Amino acid sequence: MLIDLTQMRPGETGVIKEIQGGQGLMIRVRSMGIRYGKKITKVSSHFWRGPQTIDVGNMQIALGFGMAKRILVEVER
Q1: What is the rounded distance in angstroms from the CA atom of residue 59 to the CA atom of residue 55?
Q2: What's the CA gap between 62 and 29, in Å, rounded?
Q3: Is the pTM of this model over 0.85?
Q4: One pLDDT digit (tens) per residue for the chain, 77 residues
Q5: SS3 5
Q6: Cα(24)–Cα(8) distance, integer angstroms
Q7: 4 half-sphere exposure, CB direction, 13 A CA radius
Q8: Order of strands, edge to edge, in the sheet holding 71-75?
Q9: Which of 18, 43, 57, 73 could form a disulfide with 14 if both were Cys (CB 3.0 to 4.6 A apart)?
């Protein structure tokens, strides 16, 4: 099932399949270690469009709601 990062539940794991955005967004997320095929785990999300925290490799990253909405992840439910 392909969903955006904001729809993942805390503790859920998935693989990044698509990043929808321009060159600026692509450069920004790549510099954080977020790439196609990378396995991520959602740590937490905040109420009402707040930051989304994910685990990528050995680090935790907090993404804004708008940026997280553009990252599509394949999860098994």
Answers
A1: 6
A2: 11
A3: yes
A4: 999 999 999 999 999 999 999 999 999 999 999 999 999 999 999 888 899 999 999 999 999 999 999 999 999 87
A5: helix
A6: 24
A7: 13
A8: 2-4, 71-75, 13-19, 39-45, 52-56, 59-63
A9: 73
Range(s) of the domain holding residue 35: 2-75
Do residues 39 and 32 lie in contact, with contact meaning Cβ atoms separated by under 8 Å?
no
Structure-block tokens of residue 52 = 């989304």
Tokens at residue 1, please? 């099932």
Structural domain total, the chain: 1
Domain with 68 in it: what CATH number?
Answer: 2.30.30.90
- Cβ neighbours around 47 below 10 Å, total: 5
Q: Which of 48, 52, 25 is nearest to 40 (CA)?
A: 52
